[in-house]
Amino acid sequence: KKYRDVIGFSPDWPEVSVRLAWMLSTADDHTLRDGAKALELLKKPSLEGVNELPYVLYVKSAALAEVGQFGEAIEAAKAAKEKIGPGADEDLLQKINRALVLYETRQTVN
User: Fold this and answer.
1) Confidence of residue 99 (pLDDT cuts 50, 70, 90)
2) What tens digit of pLDDT does each residue of 53-93 get?
3) How far apart are the first and last CA of the chain?
4) Sign of the CA dihedral with 83 first, then 17, 23, and 91 last
């Protein structure tokens, strides 16, 4: 709820939109999940220019999986992985690899 409140005050703050999209896609409490809203947040004009960053693509993959679009989730996760490049963010790379395994078995990130 707090992130949703901040969005109301700072609708053009990309970091808040991405964090809220992640929470809506992966919340432990499944009643708080809303993949469609997460995808809507990730399409905001304020994210133009950052929407192809590896972490944002990873968040997008989680949102796509949450709405059952596993093929597209796999594509987004693979695109995120390609953008990381060799020797860069190993932690994110591991998370993406784990997510890909989940998506291939039609599971969401939790």
Assistant:
1) very high
2) 999 999 999 999 999 999 999 999 999 999 987 777 889 99
3) 19
4) positive
Residues written for the chain:
110
Q: How far apart are CA 19 and CA 27, in angstroms?
A: 11
Distance between CA 92 and CA 55 in Å, rounded?
A: 7
CA distances for 72 relative to 6, 62, 69, 98, angstroms: 29, 10, 6, 16
- To which residue do tokens 């009643």 refer? 31
The Cα angle at residue 18 between residues 2 and 64, in degrees rounded to 5: 110
The answer, as to whether pTM is greater than 0.85, is yes
Whole-number average pLDDT of the chain = 88
How far lies 89's CA from each of 19, 50, 75, 96, in Å? 18, 17, 19, 11
